[in-house]
Amino acid sequence: MLAFKLALKNLMGAGLRTWLNVSVLSFAFVIIIFYNGMLDGWNRQGRNDTIAWVTGAGQLWHPGFDRFDPYTFQDSHNVLSPEIVAEVEKKNLVPVLVAQATAFPQGRSLGVILKGIDPEQTILSLPSQSLITEISQDNAIIGKRFAESANLKKGDKLLIRWRDKNGTFDAREVNISEIFNCDVPEADNGQVYLPIGVLQKMMGMQNEATYLVTGENYINKNPENWIFRDLSFLLADFDKLILSKRVGASIMQIFLLLIALIAIFDTQVLSIFRRQKEIGTYIALGMTRYQVVGIFTVEGGTHSILATLLGALYGIPLLLVINKTGISFGIGQDMNITLAETIYPYYSLKLIASTIILVVMSATVVSYLPSRKISKMKPTDALKGKLQ
Known about the structure:
two-stranded antiparallel ribbon; alpha+beta
């Protein structure tokens, strides 16, 4: 407590020099929390959107299915067993049939992926109810990005050509009954959703599916001929993207923190040089050298505590406003990554606590390094003011 009181008194006595160091360190403290909060917010939104629109709680794949290899689609389909059908009727599973096709919007040809899905499913956020029709036409739903790239609107007719399981080409015109807006490119780009019954009939694959999306209540019993893929597998690419952003952000944060720590280090070196008589007096009064080292270390470390308080003073209102309004980048669709139009940061207690510990520990270590010189000082020379 004595060391802290002396440190606080000396820091207040240093005036502007102290507050410059504290201001720089508090700026680094707030920026670190803000940037990591944005990454955490992006991560939470991206994962939630992908689970809601594409993956569900997990998926059961045909053994030969690879979502990144369209050449596997033709032969990747299993007949739904009675156990699977029972789970589908309980709304625990959604069967999806996948096929390659070519679409011809306004006379152009585009490679697309046809996905047959149950119009009455409730696991995914896709507006599949729009696939239901009471007249003699086949409805299809597409995403906003694909609609813009193909220049399609709701109510337009789209000619598609596909090849069935026997290799025979066929073509059909479908009605675009709905255009949905989502932030997940995997659910949008080049995807045309049809009722699964219609696509099964088109492909000649009655009661078959390529993969099954599982709901939260589904209990995996490892059904035969299906491989379960959990979220760690399905979201692996997105997790790698977030990790790469964290690595890039950490480099910037290290440089920012270094600027503040160098200022503290420089202040400590100058302080020890100018206060040698004071150090000699402490030792002459009975303090050990290591107690004096502790006073100077605490004095340097107190910069971080003052920086935390100052950062909280202006950082909390600023970060709360950003948390409420979010930040719109407007580039998610162009970059073809899962990125919402507006990102809302997420400040967890773990993030705030770890940042405070990082700043306090770094400032304390940097303050200790020049203070070690005190342990080698001769008290008599220090009292005489001789340079050591």
